[in-house]
Design brief:
The protein is an alpha+beta fold. 27% of the residues lie in helices and 27% in strands. It has a single domain, classed as BirA Bifunctional Protein, domain 2 (2-Layer Sandwich), CATH 3.30.930.10. It is globular, with a radius of gyration of 20 Å.
Length: 327
């Protein structure tokens, strides 16, 4: 049916057959040069008493975790820093419902493509959210917005729940790919003629966030094959993971144009008697904290086995500047 058709791809998107055809737009930050034996984030966290994956597996199965000690604080520090950072940029802070009805979900995504990602609640018309993007996209379902209020820019904080059914054998160690994680998400409702500008702006804001954290990254324009079906154009930010000697995706920043707005019937007008138009919707990760904590632990590890806390997070960690072993 019409509801399963993808968005129209923007003319600036390179046509490709897989992720190898994505275009690297920029690199930022020097890759750290370690003169000692590198540990991955799991070994670092285990040696510092920050993570218990074995006990989490005992009670919930694979891809779950207990965060412990300073990692609990680091997680909250990242969330609070992220919310302050976006509030300063003029975003409205939101904490959405962590569950969503089928009708709202079908407006935000092509549900058939998400069935192996999201948890369905038995006997209820509810799903656990895989991302707050879906809650934020459907927030103004069946509404006519006032043109003078656009762009509406939301910073949403929530846990996210994912089955990761298609990820067998991928990132099985640690907290990089898990069934639940926290995320601060940007969501923008824009006039159609401004959405390209809003997209670039959202990307620049997100890049600045990782620059402030001191994490080396690169920015990538996704090719047609790697593009999600709701998006017309997507940038990814990939952070340097020293233990993998590779850049790994930590941010996805997309312009969905009027794809979600048409499905959810979200329109705007400037004058009361004027013809309504569909808004454009855009979304971007600001920070998915579990992945970012893995990045911080690896990039900020020291030769004596501790982890330095990025400068911008000191004030959110009650002045803890270094994470060391609990005796």
């Amino acid at each position: 049916s019409m509801m399963t058709l993808p968005n129209i791809i923007d003319k600036s998107v390179p046509i490709g057959s897989d992720e190898k055809d994505n275009v690297i737009l920029k690199y930022h930050g020097a890759i750290p040069n370690f003169d000692f034996f590198l540990k991955d984030h799991v070994d670092i966290a285990n040696s510092l008493g920050l993570l218990d994956i074995e006990r989490a597996a005992k009670i919930a199965g694979a891809r779950f975790y207990f965060l412990k000690n300073e990692l609990v604080k680091l997680n909250l520090a990242l969330i609070n820093f992220a919310l302050d950072f976006l509030a300063e940029k003029g975003y409205t802070l939101v904490q959405p419902p962590f569950m969503i009805r089928k009708e709202a979900m079908e407006g935000a995504v092509i549900l058939a493509d998400f069935e192996d990602m999201i948890y369905k609640i038995e006997k209820d018309d509810l799903y656990m959210i895989g991302t707050s993007e879906h809650s934020m996209a459907s927030m103004h379902m069946n509404e006519i917005l006032d043109g003078k209020d656009l762009p509406l820019r939301y910073a949403s904080t929530s846990p996210c729940f994912r089955k990761e059914a298609g990820a067998h054998g991928k990132d099985t160690k640690g907290i990089f790919r898990v069934h639940q994680f926290e995320k601060v998400e940007q969501f923008v409702y824009s006039r159609p003629e401004e959405s390209e500008l809003q997209h670039e702006r959202m990307l620049a804001i997100t890049e600045e966030f990782y620059e402030k954290l001191g994490i080396p990254y690169r920015t990538v324009l996704l090719c047609s094959a790697d593009l999600g079906k709701t998006s017309s154009r997507t940038f990814d930010i990939e952070a340097w993971m020293p233990s993998q000697n590779a850049y790994r995706e930590i941010v996805s920043c997309s312009n969905c144009t009027d794809f979600q707005a048409r499905r959810l019937v979200t329109r705007f007008r400037d004058k009361i008697n004027e013809q309504t138009r569909f808004v454009h919707t855009l979304n971007s990760t600001l920070v998915a904290t579990e992945r970012t904590m893995a990045c911080i632990m690896e990039n900020y590890q020291t030769s004596n086995g501790t982890v330095e806390v990025p400068d911008v997070l000191h004030q959110y960690m009650r002045g803890i500047k270094e994470i060391s072993r609990k005796n």
